[in-house]
C-alpha cells in the first residue's frame, strides 16, 4: 500500500523551487543586461566617437559653406545620439548590488534621476530598512527606476515622492507623483497584451518582477489625481 501523502506539501515544495528559479533568473537577467551595457560602451560608442572625429577633421578642410553646414548637422546628430547612449549606459550601469545596502542604492538612484531630469524627488527611507537579498535589491532598483521614468515621461509630474521601509521580513516601496494620472484598469488591460501602445510600458515588467519574487503590487491612479505605485517584496 503506498504511503499516505500529507496534503499541500507537494505544491509548497514546488512553489519554493519556482521562487528559487525566479530569483536565479532575475540575477542572470541583470548580469546579461550589464554585459549588453559593456558591449555598447566598447562597441557602438567608440565607433560613433571615431566617426565624429573623422567628420570634424573633414569639416575643417572644407571651404564650401553648404557642405560645411550639412557636415555640421551630421556631427550634431551624432553628438546627440552619443549623449543618449551614454545616458542609457549611465542609467543601467550596475550600482554595486552585492557590496552596497538597499538604502544607499535607492538614494543613489533618486539623485541620479534628479540630475538627469531636473525633477524633484522627495525620498523617505526608514532607518530600519537594513540590507536584503541580492534579488530583492535588484528588483527594487529596477522597479523604482521604471516608476520614476514613467512619472517623468508620461504623467507630466513636477514632483515625485519615494518611500521605502521594512516590516518584519518584507520590504515596501511606494512611489507617488503629482502628474495627470490615468485609468489603471485601461492601462493594465492594454499591458496584458503584447505590443502595448500608449505609454506606461514598464508596468507589466514591474508586475512580472514582483510575481517572480512572491511580492505584492498595487497601483492607484485616476485622471487628474496623480499616481501611487506600491510594491512589497520579501527581504530574504
Please tell me about this protein's structure.
There is one protein chain. With 236 residues, this protein is an alpha+beta fold. Helix content is 57%, strand content 16%. It has 2 domains: 1-94; 99-234, 2-Layer Sandwich (Heat Shock Protein 90). It has 7 helices and 5 strands, in the order ααααβαββααββ. A 5-stranded mixed sheet has the order 1-2-3-5-4, with helices on one face. β2 and β3 form a beta hairpin. α1 (9-42) runs antiparallel to α3 and α5 packs antiparallel against α7 (203-212). The chain is globular and about 70 Å long. The two termini are 40 Å apart.
Outline type: globular
| pLDDT < 50 runs, ≥5 residues | 1-11, 194-201
Write down the CATH class of the largest domain: Alpha Beta
CATH level 3 topology of the largest domain: Heat Shock Protein 90
> Strand content of the residues, in percent?
15-25%
Please state the structural category: alpha+beta
CATH architecture field of the largest domain: 2-Layer Sandwich
- What are the secondary-structure elements, in order, as H or E? HHHHEHEEHHEE
Arithmetic mean of pLDDT? 78
According to CATH, the homologous superfamily of the largest domain is Histidine kinase-like ATPase, C-terminal domain
Q: How many helical elements? A: 7
Span of the ends, CA to CA:
40 Å
Radius of gyration: 23 Å
Extended strand count: 5
Helix content: 55-70%
Task: Identify the strand order in the major beta sheet.
Answer: 1-2-3-5-4
How many domains? The number is: 2
What is the fold's blueprint, element by element?
Elements: H1 9-42, H2 44-61, H3 65-92, H4 102-117, E1 120-125, H5 134-153, E2 159-167, E3 170-177, H6 184-191, H7 203-212, E4 216-221, E5 227-234
Parallel strand pairs: 1-2
Antiparallel strand pairs: 2-3, 3-5, 4-5
Helix pairs in contact: 1-3, 1-5, 2-3, 4-5, 5-7
